[in-house]
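Hey,

Quick one before I head out. I ran the complex with S-adenosyl-L-homocysteine overnight. Inputs first:
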Amino acid sequence: MRRHPWVFSGAIERVEGDPGPGETVEVLSHNGEFLCRAAYSPSSQIALRAWTFAAGEDVGPEFFRSKLEQAIAFRAPFMKLSDGACRLVNAESDGLPGVIVDRYAGFLVCQFLGAGAELQRGEIVSQLFQMLSPIGIYERSDVDVRLKEGLEPRSGLLLGEPPPPLLVIREKTCRFLVDIEHGQKTGFYLDQADNRAMLADYAEGAEVLNGFSYTGGFAIHALKAGAGRATNIDSSPTALDLAARNRELNQIDERSLENIEGDVFQVLREFRDRRRTFDLIVLDPPKFVESQRQLSRGSRGYKDINLLAFKLLKPGGVLFTFSCSGLVGPDLFQMIVAAAALDAGRNAQIIRVLTQGPDHPTALHFPEGAYLKGIICRVS
Ligand code: SAH
């Protein structure tokens, strides 16, 4: 297994006994050698997710305590702010397959995405409560991937007090409102925190376009760093309501921020037709490629929006472009962006390549964990 945490169902020769969903089983090679102790998920294609590769290690309370402690200790530098936010447990990459824990100010938000994580949920939640004394722990396992594991999507309070309708978190020089109960994912796109802050270097006086803005994180960072004006585009009206409130929270003038509810593909075409141009463009779309089958269609999606963005950039303008589709690797993404620049007739340079923040580490033996890629491009 070379420490990769997954075993696909097709690789299993036989199952001894009758393990239930999520139960910890011992995994042996064809010649009886110990491989790992793993959670069994009979209805999933990923039939086994390894908890430990150490033959003598028991998967009990002590095991979970030590994994959680390690993950949290590693985030200590990011946890200094009491009103900060960061990912505390990044599933497979922190040795806890299927377990996500995000911290927002005094609250924790968890996702349990596999049968094993689900079975250990009580243990994990009570240990987190003891270790971190949060005000409350809320569950946002309302995601479709659970269906592949034979689990229903679910959300609700797990322990402690329910979160207020909106929490305020601090991210570098900015503050953001987060709706833990109804926001996207666990409330906020924490993986982009460092990349949002990176806009500051290019923001001075800039006219900014923030495509797929969610609650306006990139735009707020740019405006705080001296951008002249910013335009958010998102299809979600609730996200844009929060974007407007985030503007107020950060004491940014109303005239500096425009929020457009719409489809980015369409709005960018309209801007092209009206010859609107920008100094700084951010494109942070949702996952266009969920499966191998969607690869060519999704790639075309990335190409289209980047082509439009290149057409809208003023000479010397800068593009921050992202893909969170794990199946689109960094090389392919760069090829797509290059093809888009070529078709737009623009010459561009890569200034920097970006990835998810350090609170979203990738285990070396789990390349699937590196899903977010970004490129900062400057056009001449
Ligand atoms: N950049 C954001 C996160 C973006 S997540 C941040 O830093 O917080 C992707 C966003 O794209 C979501 O808010 C979703 O509502 C929006 N979205 C998805 N498809 C869209 C489309 N076709 N047009 C506009 N917005 C879209």
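Residues 184, 189, 192, 196, 212-215, 217-218, 233-236, 239, 263-264, 284, 286 surround S-adenosyl-L-homocysteine (CB under 6 Å).

Talk tomorrow,
K.
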